[in-house]
Amino acid sequence: MKRLLPRPPGSLRRRLVLGATVLATVAVVVSQVFGFAVLRSWLVDRVDQQLVDFHPPTPAYFGARQGAVPGDRPGVLPSDFRVYFYDASGRRIDASLGAVDTPGPRIADSVARLGLRDGHPETVDSVSGDSRWRVLLSSGPDNMHAVVALPLDTVDGATSKLLWLDAVLLAATVAALLALGRWVVRLGLLPLTRMEHTAERISAGQLDLRLPDTDPRTEIGRLSRVLNSMLERLRQALAEREASEARMRRFVADAGHELRTPLTAIQGYAQLALRRARLSADEESEAHQLIAQNAERMGLLVDDLQLLAQLDREPSYASAPVDLLSLAADAVRTAALHGTSHPVDLGPLPTPAGTGELEVVEATGDPHRLRQIVENLLSNARLHTPPGTPIHVRVGETRVSVGTCGANRAGRTSASPPLPHGTPVSVLEVADEGPGLAARNAEHVFERFYRADPSRSRAYGGSGLGLAIAAAIAEGHGGRLELDTAPGQGCVFRLVLPAQTPNGRTGGTSADDRGPGRTLSGCPPRPQARTSGDRRSAPCTPRRPADG
């Protein structure tokens, strides 16, 4: 059954040409039929009007009844009129008016069998031949009747010629439509043809190409805009996939590199320790210590990797009010315990409307994770700056803008998206007066296992996971960790968190709202102090800073 059905035309161009041709042909045929019907009706009406306007004279009725009507005289009636008379009894009289050299209309011998109504023209056939006549029954004197007839040869001839003319015009129209339609459709589909060629080049690998003809006023233009948007998203997805695969390969290679060094050391010292007979007690103790140190190094690295994996799974953080000022004070005191090579001070965040005094700065989050960020930033500042370089810890509140924090700008790096402009934020920043970082190094500081040292030596840093962990924790708290730096201008690492209060308002609160002698982080408040020589024990147990 399917084989009996005609196959539809294949290409869109062919379907459009054939469809337009068929519709145009139907329109032409309908218009020709309508014109033919109107013209024929008009011609027939003219004949009928002539029949109605013609009235046989009264003497002709009496002459026909007496047989004195000369039917063979062509000049008696105008044109092709024929008049046939019927007597009072309804029988047709042999006498008639008009030429008799051509066959007349086929009419009945009695009025009763005519089937005509008085004053209503009708069409009848000829006595012989293919011609037709238009006849009209009219009343005369003494109950006599007359049938006036006119031939339709002129009407039929004109309409026949019109039919032939219409057929020729229809054939010419169809041929012109097929020829011109192909050109018009090809011109109209030219944008689609360009789209096809561009799509072929894109599928061949030229992913940067885009479809032309993006005029939103046209259907093809709107289609091109939608497809271009889709192609751009696909290109970005492919680029992100390639970047993700590259990061994964680099992550695996870096993790292998970081684990290989301690594993090699453990293996070497373990083999050395197996030869107990050849080792002195001091050498054996040293081998055991080195094995323990490298095992601890591996353990710290594995802990960092597990923490990163946990952060990638979007862990749930403890949500509690945190006093960033107390957090910073505890971190500064803990940093002082590591030595006096880098003087560290605590001060207010410099703002145009600042009071120059330390104030309580509150945020909501996990106190332990936030403290881990601060300790990591201080550890990085000590490791990557020369001895004696001052380190400044500043705490305050401000609003997100390009000139303050939380927004992207030239010279600023962050692994997290910018915060909405004008958002009130709590800020804790760690600034040093060291050599700073070049732009090519600053843009990678938050990547995993990244170290600016090309030799990958651990002399000036850890595994390269600390800042990646800190950035992930900051983003998990709804904020971000950012870096402002330039060569010779030091580094400013800034923790930006949404500012919140216990009653839901933004901004700081007074110390009386926290209870006597305690902060929201659970640690006693500390005044502003320079702690390079402060050796008092910290009231909060310091956590191990993640390697930076």
Describe the structure.
The protein has 548 residues and is an alpha+beta fold. A six-stranded mixed sheet has the order 7-9-11-13-12-10. The protein is rod-shaped.
Give the radius of gyration: 54 Å
Mean pLDDT: 76
Kindly report how far apart the N and C termini lie: 76 Å
Report low-confidence residues grouped into runs of 5 or more.
454-460, 504-548
Structural class: alpha+beta
Number of strands: 13
The DSSP helix count reads 10
Largest sheet: 6 strands, mixed
Widest sheet: strand ordering: 7-9-11-13-12-10
Shape: rod-shaped
What is the element layout, followed by pairings?
Elements: H1 12-53, H2 58-65, E1 82-86, E2 92-97, E3 122-125, E4 132-139, E5 145-151, H3 153-188, H4 190-203, H5 219-274, H6 281-312, E6 320-323, H7 324-336, E7 344-348, E8 362-365, H8 367-383, E9 391-399, E10 412-414, E11 424-432, H9 439-442, H10 466-476, E12 480-485, E13 491-498
Parallel strand pairs: 7-9
Antiparallel strand pairs: 1-2, 1-5, 3-4, 4-5, 6-8, 9-11, 10-12, 11-13, 12-13
Helix pairs in contact: 1-3, 5-6, 6-10, 7-8, 8-10
